[in-house]
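Module 6 notes. Inverse folding takes a fixed backbone as the condition and produces residue identities as the prediction. Think of it as a translation problem where the source language is geometry and the target language is the twenty amino acids. Below is one complete input and output pair. Work through it position by position during the lab.
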């Protein structure tokens, strides 16, 4: 993390300035496997607080274990807070029987390709999994709204960049795109907290 942050700061004074505001950067690594992807599905298009609350209910009911999910109905999952589509996605994930140990040794692009083949796992979810559950250093979830807004603020852009525009920008941050993402998330959180102070 430190090596990547230094590399980014040396290459762009805006990253250098942001690092002065938000260091140390949070690593935010978590375990891999089925529970991590269930958690990522919970987090699709809702607030972190809501996603955490739903995942806590799933965890308490052991609905983060494939066998338990397969023995349950989608209505059982919905009763714990998942939307109808997300209940289908969690069932599809359990049915996919992915080899999570094998994913650890695949190149990042192959990890993402394998995951997006499962219904309900899109690019964002696959990239988040590669970053936080597999600890990949050069993955960037350009579809993330907080990353888009963080980039708009840090780079003083006239509008929030689109997924495609931000992905193009992030090409310049390789081989440390995951560190750039953590920096942009931290910068966005810092700026949001400042906005709350009058």
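Target side of the pair, the amino acids:
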């Amino acid at each position: 993390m430190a090596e990547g942050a230094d590399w980014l700061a040396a290459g762009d004074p805006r990253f250098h300035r942001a690092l002065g505001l938000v260091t140390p950067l949070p690593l935010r690594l978590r375990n891999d496997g089925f529970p991590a992807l269930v958690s990522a599905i919970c987090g699709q298009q809702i607030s972190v607080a809501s996603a955490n609350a739903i995942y806590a209910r799933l965890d308490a009911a052991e609905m983060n274990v494939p066998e338990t999910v397969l023995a349950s109905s989608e209505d059982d999952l919905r009763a714990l807070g998942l939307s109808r589509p997300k209940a289908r996605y969690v069932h599809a994930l359990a049915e996919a029987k992915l080899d999570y140990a094998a994913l650890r040794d695949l190149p990042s692009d192959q990890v993402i390709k394998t995951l997006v083949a499962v219904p309900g796992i899109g690019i964002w979810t696959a990239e988040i999994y590669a970053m936080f559950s597999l600890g990949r250093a050069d993955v960037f979830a350009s579809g993330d709204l907080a990353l888009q807004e963080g980039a708009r603020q840090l780079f003083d852009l006239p509008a929030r960049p689109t997924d495609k525009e931000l992905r193009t920008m992030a090409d310049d941050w390789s081989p440390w795109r995951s560190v750039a993402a953590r920096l942009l998330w931290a910068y966005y959180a810092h700026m949001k907290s400042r906005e709350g102070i009058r």
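Reference fact for the lab report: The chain has a mean pLDDT of 93.
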